[in-house]
Each structure stands twice: as C-alpha cells, then as structure tokens.
Amino acid sequence: MSQPILSVIIPVYNAEKYLQETINSILNQSFTDYELIILNDKSTDNSKAIIEKNAAADSRIVFVDKIENIGPARLRNEGFETSKGEFIALMDADDIAMPDRFSKQIEFLKKNPEIGVCGTFYTLFKLDGKRKLIALPTEHLAIRTAFLFYDPIGNPTIMLRKAVLNDFRFHDDFVPIEDYELWDRMSAHTLMANLSESLLDYRWHDTNISQTKIHNVNRALRNLRLAQLQRDFGITSENTNIEGYLNAFDFKRGLSAQEVIATIDASQQLIAINRESRIFDQKILEKQMNQIVVRTLRKSKEFNKPLLRYLRNEGKPVFRKVRWFDRILIMFKSIF
C-alpha cells in the first residue's frame, strides 16, 4: 500500500475471545487511509489464526508475529518503529473503536497543529450490559496537572503525531502502568488534549488482581512519583521528608500523627513551589492536594495533643477545610 496517513497499533496476547470484534471496529472506520499493525506476542490461543485470516483479506493489515513473548510495552515500541503514518493511534485487543473515532481525532489534530497527543472520553462496559462514561480533562494544563494524581489519558484512545514521538518509548520498568508513565513524561514536552466525546468502548473485565500485580503497580507508581517530584518540584529521593511528599499525591489510610503532620507540611510546600513556577494549574493542584491531606487527616490511626497543636497553628489552613463536625471529632479524640 502507499504511504498511509495513520498507523494503528494493536498488541495481542491470547485475545481470541474479542479480537475479531476489535479488528472489525477498525476495518469499519469512516476514515480508511491507515495501516493496521497487529503484533502477536506469541499467543497460545487462536489469536494468530484470526489475525492471519484478516491480513489475507485486507492489505492494510501488517502482521508482526513474535517468536517469544516480550510484553505489551515492547510490542507497542516495536509498533512505533514499524509505523509509517504521519499519525499513530493505539488500541487494545479487546476494545471497540466508534466508527468516527479516527476521522474526528485526525480532524482535530489537523485543526490544532500545536497539539501533539489527542485522547478521548471513553465508555467502560461490562458483559452484563452496564456502561459508564469516563470523562477526563480536555485542556493541556488540566491534563498535565491531573497526571500528578491519576492518569487522565485513556491509553487505547490515544492518537499522536509521529513527529512528537522522537525517542519517547514505553519503559518495561514501569509495567503495568507504563502508559501512565510515558504520557506523563511526554506532557512536559508536547501539548495534549482529550476530545469531550466517548469514541471508544473499553471492556471491563471482572477478574481478580493478583498480589504480585498490586505490588508491581505500587512499585511503579512510587518510581513515577519520585520522577515527578524531581522533575517538576526539584525534590529528590534523598529529601528527609520524601514519604510526606509521596503521601501528598496519593491518599494513605492509617498514618501516625507525625506522618500526617509531615504530609500536610509537604503538601503546603508543593503548593507554594508551584505558585512560583506555575507549571501546573494552581487551583486544580490546591483542590486535589487539599482533598488528599484532609482525607489523610480524617483517616489517621491516632490523634494526640501535638497533632492538635499543629492543626491550630502551622496546619490551620488545612484544618479549616475539614468539615466542622469532623473538626470537633478530631479535637475530642486528640484531647481524650
């Protein structure tokens, strides 16, 4: 085929149950000038046969069949290297793209040349028919600020300009949140946007998450937060209150009184740093961080007089944001 405008990348591993439905949602797009790069990660089910059948019927499909399992991060990176299009779109092997997804994203990117990465709202759906719209920040500054607290970009909704990709790649060290880490890292180098329309159905699987995966998520998230602190706030992992800074981003239940004080102190310092640097949206940062520290305070495992003394002095700006009933309860528990 001639040089396509768009390259679509789908990593596949044992996805036979939903793979054909996903491929159909791409082949039925209103926008047709694309190549579909499907990378099979040595699946042990019928995925390979499904891909081969579709590739034989449609010349736009590029089939990459791996002889060893390398994981989705490396598969997507290989897709980046293989891609020929001006734009690159990502998909997962069990999701469904709306028929106008590609046309609407390409139209938006062409009209807004300053935007390098474009996501969309998406809809979670379950086998029982339940559906839930996931709305996300739409403007770059709000998106970049949100990365400090959660991932505001749906990875399988992404379309980006290949020109902004440069050397950016998914890192195995951050699996299974490698997408969160990549888009956060890129947000400091290119403008991002989300279209305020659900253009993807995201299949929600009710499966148990193993303790190993929970451990890997927590490990990767900690490393991501440490990178954010150093890059955006100038705070290194050697800082004596590093745990307080980390807790200011992610709610922790059952902290000691001293840990709560350290978290409140850290949150106020981060807010003050951004007031000077203006890297993030100040209003969003303050609202999100204050919500976290107020909840951290309410769910502390202990209350004592030193904590109450702190809340009446240095921590007063945060204590004022606690509901009056909870303030009374905290004072009572701290005294008695």
Distance between the termini: 77 Å
The CATH superfamily of the largest domain appears as Spore Coat Polysaccharide Biosynthesis Protein SpsA, Chain A
* Separate helix tally: 14
State the CATH class of the largest domain.
Answer: Alpha Beta
Helix content: 40-55%
CATH-assigned fold name of the largest domain:
Spore Coat Polysaccharide Biosynthesis Protein SpsA, Chain A
Uncertain segments of ≥5 residues (pLDDT<50)? none
User: In terms of structural class, how would the helical and strand content be classed?
Assistant: alpha/beta
- Second CATH tier, the architecture of the largest domain: Alpha-Beta Complex
Counting DSSP E segments of at least 2 residues, the number of strands comes to 9
Task: Provide keyphrases for this structure.
14 helices, Spore Coat Polysaccharide Biosynthesis Protein SpsA, Chain A, alpha/beta, 46% helix, 9 strands, 9-stranded mixed β-sheet, 336 residues
How would you explain this protein's 3D organization?
- This protein has 336 residues and is of the alpha/beta class.
- It has two domains: 6-203, Spore Coat Polysaccharide Biosynthesis Protein SpsA, Chain A (Alpha-Beta Complex); 234-335, no CATH class.
- Helices cover 46% and strands 17% of the residues.
- Helix 10 (257-277) runs antiparallel to helix 11 and helix 10 (257-277) runs parallel beside helix 12 (305-312).
- The longest helix is centred in the middle third of the chain and has 23 residues, at 211-233.
- The chain is elongated.
